Amino acid sequence: QVQLVESGGGEVQAGDSLRLSCAVSGRTIISLSMGWFRQAPGKEREFVAAITRSWSGGRLNYADSVKGRFTISSDNAKNTVYLQMNSLKPEDTAVYYCAADVHGSGSWYQPGTYDYWGQGTQVTVSS
Question: What contacts 122, CB < 8 A, 6 or more positions away?
Fold first, then answer.
């Protein structure tokens, strides 16, 4: 069983930065593809960023709306994945979730690919 616990959310002003953390237990992250998703009120859950694992190494993927502002990274020693969010905008307001893909299904942008989810952390950006 894989467990994910997010932290680091909060309320900030537009232009500020936040770093979200996702602590993983039950399996080492080097064997997992990890994703960040977000869901705003009344909207569907949407892809934000992912680290996909393969025999050839990891690959970073981003939604166009966050490319150049957000960075996904991982610390294998801490078994933790991070989402550094810079230049935050009011439209980034959402509950942010981390997710783990055990099977390496490849469709890293689709929520249905992921096997385990965290409880979410709220990010609120005011103008």
Answer: 9, 10, 94, 95, 96
Of residues 12 and 1, more confidence is placed in 12
* Contacts with 80 (C-beta within 8 Å, 6 or more apart), sequence order: 21, 22, 23, 24, 29, 74
Q: Select from 39, 18, 36 the least CA-distant residue to 93.
A: 39
Q: How far apart are CA 96 and CA 45, in angstroms?
A: 9
Written as six digits, the tokens of 9 are 């959310």
Q: How far apart are CA 76 and CA 68, in angstroms?
A: 24
Rounded-to-integer distance, Cα 33 and Cα 60, Å: 10
Whether 18 and 11 have beta carbons less than 8 Å apart is answered as no
Nearest to 32 by CA among 81, 86, 82, 94: 81
Pairing of the two strands 121-126 and 10-13? parallel
pLDDT of residue 30: 87
pLDDT digits (tens, 9 = 90+) for 86-103: 999 999 999 999 999 998
